[in-house]
Design a protein that fits this description.
Layout (H helix, E strand, L loop, with lengths): L1 E6 L6 H12 L3 H14 L1 E7 L1 H17 L5 E6 L1
Helix pairs in contact: 1-2
């Protein structure tokens, strides 16, 4: 299993991070806001734990969505 994490940067708007968490990780607004604040204050936040293939797909989906919207938001996966 692999953790999918979002990494903080100084450019991506907080609202965009909330949108990513809602769209790609099926979180409600309250849960997404909590994770976004964790990313903002601690530098990273866990979006979920998934099998390797699912985690890799989610990382790519988030990266492509951020790129398409011209944000440098980084999404990575780590073995759990």
């Amino acid at each position: 299993m692999y953790k999918v994490l979002l990494l903080n940067d100084d450019f991506t708007p907080m609202e965009f991070v909330v949108l990513v968490l809602q769209r790609f990780f099926a979180m409600d607004r309250e849960q997404a806001t909590r994770i976004m604040l964790k990313v903002h204050t601690e530098g990273r936040g866990i979006c979920g734990v998934f099998p390797r293939d699912v985690a890799a797909t989610k990382v790519e989906q988030v990266a492509a969505f951020a790129r398409d919207n011209q944000h440098p938001l980084a999404c990575v996966m780590e073995e759990n």
